[in-house]
Prior knowledge:
By secondary structure, the chain is an alpha/beta fold. It folds into two domains: 2-144, no CATH class; 173-492, P-loop containing nucleotide triphosphate hydrolases (Rossmann fold, 3-Layer(aba) Sandwich), CATH 3.40.50. 48% of the residues lie in helices and 12% in strands. It has helices spanning 2-23, 31-37, 47-51, 57-73, 79-86, 100-130, 134-144, 158-166, 168-171, 180-186, 205-218, 232-244, 255-260, 265-280, 291-294, 299-317, 341-357, 376-384, 399-403, 414-418, 472-481; strands at residues 194-199, 223-227, 286-290, 323-327, 367-373, 406-411, 421-429, 439-444, 449-450, 454-455, 458-459, 466-468, 490-492. The strands form three sheets. It has a nine-stranded mixed beta sheet with strand order 3-2-4-5-1-6-7-8-9, sandwiched between helices.
Amino acid sequence: MEKLESAIADLEQNSEKREENLKMKKVIPNLETIFVSVKYEELDLLNKIMEAPEVSKDNKKVIEAFITKCREVGYILSPDIIQATLGIKFVEKYQAVSNVAQYIDQYIMYAKRLKMADILNDLSSKVIEDGITSEVMKKLNGLISTSAVALDYNNITTSNLMNQYENKHIKQSNISTCDRVLDDTLGGLRKGDLTSILGASGCFKTSWALNIAYAAQLKGMNTLYLSLEVSKEDILFNLLSRHSNQEKFTKQIPHWKLKQKTLTPQQLEYLKAQIIPDYDKLKGKIYAVDKKDVGSYSLYALEQKFTEINNLSIQETGHGIDICVIDHINLLKFGESKFDVTDTYNKYASFFREQAFDWCRTKKQVAMIVIAQANRKGKKYASEHHGNYLTEHFAEGSELERSSSVVLTVYSDDNLKILYEAKVGLIKNRDGAPIESAFETPIEPEYYTFGNAIVNQDIVGIDSKFVAPATLDEIMEAAEQNQKTRFEPVEYDID
């Protein structure tokens, strides 16, 4: 009896709070409405509340007492009798409902959400003390999987599917890989997909990714470039060097001279008067973010930074981010030292896959490009097999390979660099066949240029001609003299 009295006292206190909420026009499910709405033949419906683990024991005792008393008298007690016999103080404003079963479901759902709020409150204390640990992540994942999570789902139908197919704005993302063979095979990189660029150290992974972003920038698209290895200032220097390598400019700016601040007065003047103003006129933008901007490598911190940059791009360009580049994923392991490296790596891979499909919870898709380091076995294998890699050559985890719709590879060595070439490959293509063997694509490292699909600010197709850096004899002669000469181009057709 003491427990019942205590439960009644708690219920009275809760009723007073609900009364305040009602005055603020915040109607929440309550027992009083159930008691005045339920019919005698519907009393068994209250057993559903008794079986719900989220409903408090105190409320269950009050419900049990209500059921018992109604069974004793053979009818539903009136509000006055309920207050007199059970000691429940009714809120001033309550209204009977016609569908008691549905209202009971709402009451149980509200109890579940209260339980979730208590858990989140407890987790907030743990996060303050220890950060987002694996224990916190497990509990959060458990909450997300419950039926109390609000859903906003619209099933796709054949009609709106065909509308998407016929809509020219989303038929093709038109994001070039910067290599025309790959563009012809893939049709470009698509929003909603995660694309990995796999390669050993020093094989132009960053150069390739930045050229993809630059090609998209020329077409008016926005890229968030998360650089965890070099500063965002160096990323911009690389972009200016790349932009200078257009035929319309009479002076090209080596990226290393920008970084070392060794430009000649003439180069500096030309950069400021011609190259930078022309670059600033490009329709798209590249938002370089480095580790100083992020602070923490937690998933929450990354998503918050992504959201901040996305909002900024909307403000500045009228639309959000189209491409997100992670350079490179292996460095994120240093931000979660408490956890197993492989688990950390796989956690980020899954997170980036989710971001590609639902960017910053906006239901917008972006092309996610993740640079990944090849393991030692992969580097050795590629050097012995003409620049080819296998999917098993991802360092420190396999989730990135599983999450990727497309896996691109890149390899280069001293001999290829003399030829101004890298070998690129396509070892995974979820919507088509991969390419069996890696093949050459032109590079100009001095001006941070990669591939053959950008000509005079136009992204060209597979039927166009591309420009080779020079003949073999000219390259070998320059290599022997240790020169860094920009050669006259030689044109030839691709079969």
